[in-house]
Design a protein that fits this description.
By secondary structure, this protein is mainly α. It has a domain of 176 residues. It contains 10 helices and 2 strands, in the order ααβααααβαααα. A two-stranded parallel sheet has the order 1-2. α1 packs antiparallel against α2. The longest helix is centred in the first third of the chain and has 30 residues. The structure holds zinc ion (ZN) (2 copies). The site of one zinc ion (ZN) has 5 residues, from loops.
């Protein structure tokens, strides 16, 4: 089979990035706001209601991010094609131990990248010019998953080529990383606490960020800069204790109701 041409590859990457966003955000929105709407009523965070015109703005910014991510994806494809970065197709090349280690590594590294770039974007000047676009949603919806100013989209996009320049990964690891990223992102903006409050953020899964973690970041803008994990916020003292207090009060009761229903 002939290698795809540059325009063919550009179109493939663009369609893939678009579908990844539209299907993930759409699926989370459908489940939370339509299919399980009544069941999840007690898990709505801060009685969130999107502001008028919010969805349109979230989708418009997210679509501009799809273009930035697609350009980055095309760059990555070129780097793979000329051998600068290694995304290999056969697991045997480096074995299963490396397969799992590289999966953990890429997720942990991305969380660190997100925490520190996100914190920097909260500097007054960057917030006003760039990151404030994302915070225009006080109570976000899953459609806000990619709602970034193009500069912020670029900051988030360059993680992947930078990481892959240093670390070879199997194609499957890359696929799982991309799927996990968009799903956690869409869920993190769904305004309903989907995680079991008994286990996170304080139980044996206390290192995983529940939905309230990022929702309070939007609603109050006082800390909670992490993406997947709570450890950077706890280590650096940037965790907003208010989301813990609120969750204990509200979702501990929801857990009891669900147990007796
Ligand atoms: Zn922020
Ligand atoms: Zn957000």
């Amino acid at each position: 089979m002939q290698d795809p041409s540059l325009p063919q590859m550009a179109l493939t990457v663009l369609v893939t990035d678009f579908l990844r966003y539209a299907l993930a955000a759409g699926a989370v929105w459908l489940v939370v706001n339509v299919l399980l709407r009544r069941r999840l009523a007690g898990r709505r965070i801060l009685d969130a209601v999107p502001a008028p015109g919010q969805l349109r703005r979230e989708i418009a910014y997210s679509l501009s991010t799809v273009f930035v991510f697609a350009a980055n994806g095309l760059l990555l494809w070129l780097l793979i094609a000329n051998g600068t970065v290694e995304v290999y197709p056969d697991v045997d090349r480096r074995g299963w131990a490396w397969w799992w280690a590289s999966l953990v590594l890429i997720i942990v590294a991305h969380d660190a990248w997100f925490y520190w770039t996100h914190r920097a974007l909260h500097h007054r000047r960057w917030f006003r010019a760039v990151h404030g676009r994302h915070h225009a949603s006080l109570h976000p919806t899953p459609w806000a998953a990619y709602a970034f100013h193009p500069v912020e989209a670029l900051v988030q996009a360059v993680f992947l080529p930078l990481f892959l320049l240093a670390v070879p990964v199997h194609a499957g690891v890359l696929g799982i990383f991309l799927l996990h990223m968009i799903l956690r992102n869409a869920i993190g903006h769904c305004a309903h606490e989907l995680f079991p409050w008994r286990w996170t953020p304080r139980g044996w899964l206390g290192w995983i960020t529940p939905v309230s973690h990022h929702h309070f970041h939007h609603a109050r803008n006082r800390g909670n800069y992490g993406l997947y994990f709570t450890w950077w916020d706890r280590l650096c003292g940037t965790e907003d204790p208010e989301y813990l207090r609120y969750g204990d009060e509200r979702f501990a009761a929801a857990v009891r109701q669900e147990a007796t229903a």
